[in-house]
Design brief:
The protein has ten helices and ten strands. It has a domain of 191 residues: Rossmann fold (3-Layer(aba) Sandwich), CATH 3.40.50.300. The chain is an alpha/beta fold. Helix 4 crosses helix 5. The chain has a six-stranded mixed β-sheet, sandwiched between helices.
């Protein structure tokens, strides 16, 4: 039979929170996002929004409920950056015409992503980072209450990575429900309300960053020795990788002074920074 890409994942995404999804390549992160977006049908289980199966909605209603930022937005036509952002208003247009209110939303989204100066440039002619910010502006212009972001910081420089995450956190504080797939564990630690850790197509942990981002769990899931400290800049985790070591065996784990047992693949993980919220798998 076909291999399962994702199994035993059950969680809620609520207004007012930013949930970061982390895990190694092949863990099922993008599959989860496609399921949540209604772009993929699960062989078992369902995705519910306000108690209703998301697959019952048509494209128009879906676009009003959730906005999706894919890893890449491929456009070969010579749309300007502003035209791309204006596509986000499509679900709201009456008669296909953009009104003054729509124009204000587009401008606000571009201002928020620092892309106003790119408005007249063609999208294919932009750098990868500029395209990523324009695509995010399109998602913001859609004004959906649920935002699903697939690696929103991947193509960005350091300043814009934090700008995007601050924007996401601000939108969540304003009542949006946001899920973001991230590879940078420190961005997840700094900005997320909760973190969902995926490994091997399964949920390995879910909770506040300080509860879930732990030595044992992360070392096990990512297969490298990881040490989690407290950031000197604030009360959030700082994730460090020991690049001099390729494995995280028990002898090495204890030699480094870690409390508890060494991480063992497939076994329950030990969190040395505090209790981990249990992840219900159903």
């Amino acid at each position: 039979g076909e291999a399962r890409l994702l199994a035993a994942v059950s969680f809620g995404l609520f207004p007012g929170e930013l949930v970061a999804v982390v895990g190694p390549n092949g863990a099922g992160k993008s599959t989860l996002l496609r399921l949540l977006a209604g772009d993929l049908r699960a062989s078992e289980g369902a995705v519910l929004v306000d108690g209703e199966d998301i697959l019952r909605w048509g494209p128009g209603e879906l676009a009003l409920r959730r906005a999706v930022l894919p890893q890449q937005t491929l456009l070969q036509f010579a749309f300007t950056a502003r035209q791309v952002v204006a596509l986000g208003r499509s679900p709201h247009l009456r008669g296909g015409r953009e009104g003054a209110g729509d124009a204000a939303v587009v401008e606000g989204a571009m201002r928020r992503t620092e892309t106003l100066h790119l408005a007249k440039r063609t999208y294919p002619g932009l750098s990868g980072g500029e395209q990523a910010r324009v695509s995010l502006a399109r998602v913001l212009a859609q004004e959906a209450p649920i935002l699903l972001l697939d690696e929103p910081t991947a193509a960005l420089d350091l300043r814009h990575q934090h700008q995007v995450m601050r924007t996401a956190a601000s939108l969540a504080a304003g009542g949006a429900a946001i899920l973001a797939i991230l590879h940078d564990l420190n961005l997840a630690a700094r900005y997320a309300s909760r973190v969902l850790v995926l490994g091997g197509g399964e949920a390995r942990g879910l909770g506040a960053p300080g509860e879930v981002l732990c030595d044992g769990l992360l070392s096990d899931v990512f297969g490298v020795p990881i040490r989690v400290l407290t950031s000197p800049l604030g009360n959030w985790p700082l994730v460090l990788v020991d690049a001099d070591e390729e494995t995280c065996g028990e002898a090495d784990w204890r030699r480094r002074g870690h409390e508890g047992r060494a991480p063992t693949k497939g076994a329950p993980d030990t969190c040395t920074r505090g209790p981990r919220e249990a992840m219900e798998a159903s």
